[in-house]
Amino acid sequence: MANDQVVRGHCDPAFRGVREVFETQFAEGRNLGASVAVFAGGRPVVDLWGGIADARTGREWEHDTPCLAFSCTKAVTATAALLLAERGEVALDRPVTDWWPEFGAHGKEGVTGEQLLTHQAGLPAFARKVSAEEAADPAAMAALLADQAPEWTPGDGHGYHALTYGWLAGEIVRRTAGTTVGEFVRREFAPDLWIGTSPEVMAKAAKLSATGRPPSGATDPQPGRNSGADLMTRLAEAYLDPESLLNRALNNPAASYNKPVVLQGGWPAAGMVATSRDLAAFYDSLIGGRILRKETLREGVRERVRGADRVLVVDSAFGLGFMRPAMTFLTPSAGRDSAFGHTGAGGGIGLGDPDKELAVAFIPNQMGGGMAGDRRSYELVKAAYAAVS
């Protein structure tokens, strides 16, 4: 099938490089189905989709096909917490016990809301096995984490809370707004980002197709201490070691992400179902000051932690829930001072850059080899930056 038949949608001529990269990825067999969207200067300039939404049935990817975006969800959950803080309903620099008294068990009484949002709480994995059915109850998940001892002294370094992040940061929303993260997000600022998927949206959603490979990490050059084959070896070893923090953080709860119990469960760290168009529109609204005040966003994306990640092995960097450029969030040089967002385990990304007035989203259903994204998203982001440079 020719590329012009695989890829459909709109692309401004100035951004033809994005379309060319997207088409090449299909031609090389690196996408089964996917969508990519770009806003520049507040204007939608790329809205492309193509391929197969469901490998089993052969259903094609349509303009309104949503797909699970994995950890791209975290940036949306963090935004909900920041919006409540902006309204004065929660003080993120105060101890979590101010609004969640039970959380103070086992030496966690000094943990602040900011530390929850920056992966410093020391709770990257559950202490016992958790089922997908249990994970649909955010109050139960929060109670488990409140009663756990931390893996390290909170605030003494950071480590990626791959799944637990959602129930920790989400508790800011649940206890302050009295609603789930998904309900708050859809009511307040993003009605088409589904954290807890309706039956109608689930019926249209793409089905994930796994590659079966362990995380391969990132291979593009980026400032930091990690690079080369040694890094890839250590990543693979950590992923395959059942006792490692990486393995425990990524694989509990363990479930098929195609299952309704997960998609309807509204996991606030990794359960969002969306189109790239709607995810890019979310970032465009963020940088345009239509969700948070611009000063709130500046404070939210300000880098709080950088360096050796206790879970991911590689260096990572975070603002208040947003990734900043690092090995886990690769960006071209033009965006390394101003880009923020979040990658997803399936290979996707959501990115905003207020300096460039750029918003990019990519969501595929063919799982990538990288634990926090892969080269497909980097190539598309690089092409988008080239168009605005």
UniProtKB/TrEMBL annotation:
Keyword Hydrolase (UniProt): yes
Region (Disordered): 208-229
Name of the protein this chain belongs to: EstA family serine hydrolase
A Pfam family recorded for this sequence: Beta-lactamase
Gene3D superfamilies: DD-peptidase/beta-lactamase superfamily (3.40.710.10)
Entries under PANTHER family matching the protein: BETA-LACTAMASE-RELATED, BETA-LACTAMASE-RELATED DOMAIN-CONTAINING PROTEIN
Domain of life (superkingdom): Bacteria
Record keywords, A-Z: Hydrolase
Hydrolase as UniProt keyword: yes
Domain Beta-lactamase-related: 19-379
GO molecular function: hydrolase activity
InterPro entries: Beta-lactam-related, Beta-lactam/transpept-like, Beta-lactamase/esterase
